[in-house]
Amino acid sequence: MKIRSNIIQVWKDYFAILKIDLASAVGDVSFTADIWSSDSRRPYLALTAHWITEISWS
Question: Mean of the pLDDT values across residues 33-47?
Answer without folding.
Answer: 97
